[in-house]
Amino acid sequence: MEAEGTVRLRAAAIWLLVALIAAATAALYLAVVRDLPAYTDGFRVPWWALAAGFAATEVFVIHAHFRGSAHTLSLSELPLVVGLLLAAPQELVLAQIAGPILVLLFVRGSAPVKVAFNVAQFALTATLTVVVLHALMPAPAEIGPGVWTAAFAAVGAASLVAAGLVLTVIALAEGVLPSIDVLQMFGADLVVSLTNTSIGLAGATLIAEDWSAGWLIIPPAAVLILAYRAYLSEHTKHQSLEFLYGVARSLSRVPDVETALVDLLQRTRESFRVRTAEIVLFGAGGDLPLRTALDVGGATQTMQPVGHELATALRACLREERAVVVNRDTAPAALAEYLAEQRISEAAIAPVPGETRLVGVMVLGDRLGAANDFSSSDLRLFETLAGHAGMSLEFDRLEQAIRRMRELQGALERQAYCDPLTDLANRALFMRRVHESLARPRGTSTVLFLDLDDFKRINDHAGHAAGDAVLIAAAERIRRCVRPSHLAARLGGDEFAVLLEDADERHGEDAAHRIVALLSEAVPIAGQPCWVRASIGIASAGAGSGVDADDLMRHADVAMYRAKEAGKGQVRVFTTAMHPNAPTKAPSRDEILAAVDAGEFVAHYQPIVAVGSGAVVAGEALVRWNHPRHGLLAPSAFVPAAEATGTIPAIDRVVLEQACREASDWCEDDGYAPDAAVHVNVSGEGLRTNELVRVVEDVLERTGLAPRRLVLELTESVLIAEMPTARPVLTELRALGVRIALDDFGTGYSSLACLRSLPVDILKVAKPFVDGAGRTPHDHALLAMIIELGSLFGVGVVAEGIEREDQLDALAELGCEMGQGFYLGRPLSSETRRFALRDPLAVAA
C-alpha cells in the first residue's frame, strides 16, 4: 500500500506541475502575447499550415531508448521560427497547441498525463519564445542580423526552460534526481535546437522574400533527420556495449555470490530505469528457489526462499528461452499473484542459462520515467545481460563450493597433499585420485594436462616473484572452471592437471576451452598487464580398459605436446595415431625459408556458407606444406616452428598472395556466389608495424582482387597480445576497403573488449559453442546471445565447426547468417575448385 500511495502522490505532483505550466502560459498570453502585432508586414503563414508543420515534426520525431532513458530529437524549431517571423503571435501559440495534440492523442496513444504535460510545455515554449523575441527586438522589424540574433536568444531561452521542465517531471516520476548522462543528453539537445533554429531562420528569410521558395527548406530538414537518426543509433550501440562490458567485469571480480547478485541488480535497475529488479535462482533437485531483489529505494532481499509454484510459472513464460514482457492482468494465475504481491504491473523476464540447465530468471518490474514500456531492443539487451550473468554467477558458485570443501580438510592432509604456493592438490594426491578413479567398476575418467605457454620468459624477464604471481592466478582461474567433484592440481613448475570423473572427452573439451578462455585474461604484475596462455592435452579411459594411472597421464602429456605444436592456447585430445614414442622434429628456419622460395606452401579453401540459402559466400584459405618427402603437412607440423623462428610473415604473404590471385578468378561454375570473399588468417607479427598494410595494398593491386572481397582473420589471443598497435593497423586496412574478422569469438570477456576497442566486421563463433547447438540449453543460449550481440552492433556472424545437421538447424532457427564446418564442406585445393556441397535447399531447410 505504501508503494501505491507513493505512485499516486507522484502522479498528483506531475498534474500539479502541469497546472502550474498552464497557468504561467495563460498569464503570459493574456498579459503580453494577446496584444502583440505580427512581426513582419509581408507574407503571412496561416495558422493551420503551422499546425500541420508542428504535427509533422511530432510524427517524424526520433526516439532512442537505452536502458530506460528516452532521448528524443525533432525539428519542431523549424515551424516555430517560421511562425515567429511570418505569423501572428496568437496564431503561433494556437498552432503549437493544436498540431502536436492530435499526434499525441491519435497517433502515439500517449497516457493522459503525458499528453497534458507535453501540450502545456509546447504552449509555454511558444509563448515564452514570442515574449523574449519581442522584448529583444520589438515589432515590426526587417528580417536581418538583429532579428536573427534575437530569434536565437528566444529559442535558446525557451529550450532551456523546456529542458528544466522535463528534468523536473523525470525527478517527480522517478523520485530521484536525473543522472549526469541525462544532463549531458539535454546539453546535446540544446545544440540540436540551435541548429534547427538556424535552418528555420534561413527558411523564414526565403519565404519572406519569395513564398514559393519555401520548399527549399525540405532537403536540409530531411538530411538533419537522417543525421540525428545515425547519431542516436551509434550512441545506443556504444552505450549497450559499455554496459555489458562493465557488468561482465564487475561480476568477474566479485568473489561473494550475494554481493555479486546485489551489484548486478543495482546496475540493472539503474540502467533500465525500473522500479524493481530481481533474480530468482532455481534450486537443484527439490531445493526451493532463492530470490534476491532490489527496489527503487535501495531496499534488498538476499537469497530468500520462494515457492516452487513461482519457478514453474516463470519457466512457463520462457518456453522459447527468450526474454518476454508479461502484464499482470494477462499473466498465469501463480505469476499474476506474485506480481500483485510485489506491486508490479508489467514485468520483463529473461532466462539465466547455466552450463546444462536453466538456473534461474531475471525480472524487471515497471519502467520509470518517459519510457514506460519495454522495447524490442531493451529485451535483446536484457537477454544478453542475463546470459552473461548466468555464466559468471555459476562459476562464482562453483568457486565458493570448492573453497568450502577445502576449508573442511584437516591441516595434516593439507600439508601432505596440497601445493603450498597455489593451494591446489599436489602430484601425490592427484595420482592417487587418478588410480582410485580407474579402479572403479564402471564410469569414464578424463585427465586434462596443462602447460603454461612462455612461462620461462616470464620468470627470466620479470623475476620469480612475478612467475609465482602468474602461477597463483592461473591456479585460481583453473579452479573456477571445474566442478566441486573434480580435482585440480599443480604437478610442479608450470604444469597443472585436472581429473574429471564420470566425464568423457566431450566434457573434458568443454572444461579445457573454459580454462583457455579464462586464462587469456590479463594478469596484473607490478602494475603491468601480463597475458598467459596454456596448451592442454586430454585423455580418457573407461573402467576395465587396462589403462593405468601412469598410462593415462602419459597420453594426456602427449596430447598436450601436440597442442603446443598446433600453436599457443590450443586444446588436443589423445588418439592412438599420436605415437607417444616418436615425436616429430620441428623444421628449422632454413628449411622453412627454402620451402617458401620453392613455392611449397599452398592454400586450401574451406567454404563459408549462407545458412539461409546454402550459397558459398566465402572461402577460408588454410595453409598446407606440400613437402617433397613427407607429403602434405598440416599447420600443426610447421606453424609453431615458423612462429618461433620468425618466418611466419613470409608464409602469411605467400598464402595472402595465392588466395587473392585465385579468388579473383572464382566464379559460379566453381560453386561460389557472385563476389564471394576469401578469408586469410593473419599472425600477430604484422600488427606490430604498418608492414601488413603495405603488403595487403601491394597484393590487392597486383592480383586485381576487389578489397571488399578480402577478409583478414585474427584470433582473439593475437588481438589481446598486440592490442596497443592493432587499432591503427586495422583502421588503415579498413580504409583500404578490407574487412576484419574476429576469430574464436565468445571465449571470454576479452572478446567484448576486442569488439569494443577495435574495428571488426565479422565475428566467428568458436567451435566449442557450436558443438552443443541443438542439444544443450546452455550452448543454445550462448549462441543466441552471441548472434544477438552481432545483430546489435551490425557485424556479420559465422558459426565455425558445424559437423551435424541438428547444429545447422539450430543455427538457422537462431538467425545465424553464415556457417563453416565439415558438414557443409571440407577444405579443398585450388585444383579441386568446385565444392562438393550438400543440396542448397537441404542446407536452407
Describe the structure.
This protein has 845 residues and is α/β, with parallel strands linked by helices. It folds into four domains: 2-217, Arp2/3 complex 21 kDa subunit ARPC3; 254-402, 2-Layer Sandwich (Beta-Lactamase), CATH 3.30.450.40; 413-578, 2-Layer Sandwich (Alpha-Beta Plaits); 600-826, TIM Barrel (Alpha-Beta Barrel), CATH 3.20.20.450. Helices cover 53% and strands 18% of the residues. It is built from 29 helices and 25 strands. The strands form five sheets. It has an eight-stranded mixed β-barrel with strand order 16-17-19-20-21-22-23-24, surrounded by four helices. It has a six-stranded antiparallel beta sheet with strand order 5-4-3-8-7-6, sandwiched between helices. Helix 9 runs antiparallel to helix 12 (376-407), helix 10 (308-316) crosses helix 11 and helix 21 packs parallel to helix 22 (691-703).
Largest sheet: 8 strands, mixed, barrel
Strand % is 15-25%
- Helix and strand composition category: alpha/beta
Structural domain tally = 4
Q: Report the total helices.
A: 29
Task: Give me some keywords for this one.
845 residues, Arp2/3 complex 21 kDa subunit ARPC3, Beta-Lactamase, Alpha-Beta Plaits, eight-stranded mixed barrel, 29 helices, 25 strands, 18% strand, globular
